[in-house]
Design brief:
The structure is a single chain. This protein has 9 helices and 13 strands. The protein has helices spanning 13-22, 82-85, 90-111, 147-167, 191-200, 220-231, 251-262, 286-292, 300-314, and strands spanning 3-8, 28-34, 53-57, 72-75, 114-120, 171-176, 179-180, 205-208, 214-216, 218-219, 241-243, 248-250, 268-271. It has a 7-stranded parallel beta sheet, with helices on both faces. A two-stranded parallel ribbon has the order 7-10. It has a two-stranded parallel sheet with strand order 8-13. It is of the alpha/beta class. The longest helix is centred in the first third of the chain and has 22 residues, at 90-111. It has a single domain (4-181, 219-246, 280-297), classed as Rossmann fold. Bound molecules: uridine-5'-diphosphate. Uridine-5'-diphosphate is lined by residues 81-82, 178, 190-191, 194, 206-208, 213, 215, 251, 274, 277.
Length: 315
Amino acid sequence: MSKTILITGGTGFIGSNLCNRLIKDKNNRIICVDNNYTGSLENIKKLLQNERFTFIEHDIINPLTINEDIDEIYNLACPASPPAYQGDKAIFTTKTCVYGAINMLELAREKGAKILQSSTSEIYGEPLVHPQVETYRGNVNPNGVRACYDEGKRCAESLFFDYKRIYNIKIKVVRIFNTYGPNMNPNDGRVISNFICQALKGKDITIYGDGSQTRSFCYIDDLIDVIIKMMESKNDFSGPVNIGNPEEFTISELAEFVKEKINPNLKIIYKPLPSDDPTQRRPDITLAKKELNWEPKITLSEGLDKTIEYFLQKI
Ligand code: UDP
């Protein structure tokens, strides 16, 4: 059966990987929406020639009119890297999360479409429960520098569930943990892109703080698998569901890994830890395993190799 699928944030890291995957099914027509603030047309260059693919330059802060039926909406649009979403972009970030959610939910309501929200591990803030389970309500600083993103995404979740309760919209909510792989923006400022690009250029590797903070990194192909599985899951399952790789590493371990793979002689330098930077983060994925029959397959070592290959071509 043919389907029209709208993806916001479609030129970004996760969005472009999703466009590239979904277009492979000949039954799918893809409408990719992005303002290209952190995304890039380069990521979807090959798709622009495809007659089943349309790109619309649009900021979801504003309502969107589409003159055709839509079956599914993936709402991925939002800058996700701390340097990109904070500072003078902070108010824009909150608007993208909140106005963007309202505008896309209204579109879903008008079209009778199913809609998936890309929520985030950031809704747990500085977690006091470890690993994080979906029932944990989090520990977010509501007025810190990360709040624009964390609270914006929390508000978006509340909007999704209110639209479901009030208008009976079919919603799906995934909480995405740290993800990496091809199509990451080399200038994004995220830890994996920074470390790999620094190492490839022979520069010092910059660890923020003492490097004892932890993250759990999921390779993009695993993440795309589960996002699609979630969209296609049974109607009475809305989530929220954690998606990510539960293997946890300190940032120092990650730096050593990247050094070993690219150049063991590189120097590590230490910079101040950004404010409200979470100390630990790891998803409990019991729910995803049970409801979606999914768990990640690609190890950090394999994923880093593929990502290094990508950045080698890119820079
Ligand atoms: N980080 C680092 N060096 C960098 C970039 C980031 O040590 O060059 C740290 C950052 O402070 C955080 C972790 O790596 O503790 C993950 O940062 P990222 O921005 O990738 O994601 P997030 O903080 O949103 O999980």
